[in-house]
Amino acid sequence: MSTFVIFIRNQMHDAEEFKTYSAKSAVARGDHQLKAHVYYGAVETLEGDPADGVVVVEFADRAAALAWYESPAYQEAKQHRLKAADYRVIMVDGL
After folding, report:
1. What is the Cα–Cα distance from 82 to 10, expressed in whole angstroms?
2. What is the distance between the alpha carbons of residues 21 and 8, in angstroms, rounded to a whole number?
3. Apex 59 CA angle, 74 and 91, nearest 5
4. Residue 58: its pLDDT value, please?
5. What is the mean pLDDT of the chain?
6. Distance spanning both ends of the chain, measured CA to CA
7. Of 7, 9, 10, nearest to 89 (Cα)?
8. How far is the CA of 6 from the CAs of 23, 37, 53, 58, in angstroms?
9. In sequence order, what are the residues at sequence separation of 6 or more whose Cβ sits closer than 8 angstroms to the Cβ of residue 58?
10. 10 Å Cβ neighbour count for 45?
11. Measured by CB atoms within 10 angstroms of the end CB, which terminus of the chain is less buried, N or C?
12. Which domain holds residue 75?
């Protein structure tokens, strides 16, 4: 069963830190098998708090998603994301 990791950017604070995050997160992909379905396209909030940006990434299963998220390379990149913007990150199993 596929697992999706959803990044919801609430508010950007530091564009330079975000550039660093983007570069490091691309490297963190490494050999992890993932498929990006959404990458900061146009957002229209229909309910709830507005989102500044959204990313949706698909993994084969929960174990694969966690292996990527918990990898040293992504954890290093994540430090820059935390400095760059406020996010909600959600992991959800598909059908």
Report:
1. 12
2. 15
3. 75
4. 98
5. 97
6. 7
7. 7
8. 19, 10, 11, 9
9. 2, 3, 4, 34, 35, 36, 37, 94
10. 10
11. C
12. 3-93
The number of folded domains in the chain is 1
Spell 29-39 as b/e; 16+ CB within 10 A means b.
Answer: beebeeeeeee
Single-letter amino acid code for the residue at 15: A
Which one, of 89, 94, 66, lies nearest residue 6 by Cα?
A: 89
Q: What CATH number should be reported for the domain holding residue 42?
A: 3.30.70.100
pLDDT band at residue 38 under the 50/70/90 scheme? very high
Res 33: pLDDT? 97
> CB neighbours (10 Å) of residue 71?
15
What percent of the chain lies above the pLDDT cut of 90? 100
User: pLDDT (tens digit, 9 = 90+) per residue, 67-94?
Assistant: 999 999 999 999 999 999 999 999 999 9
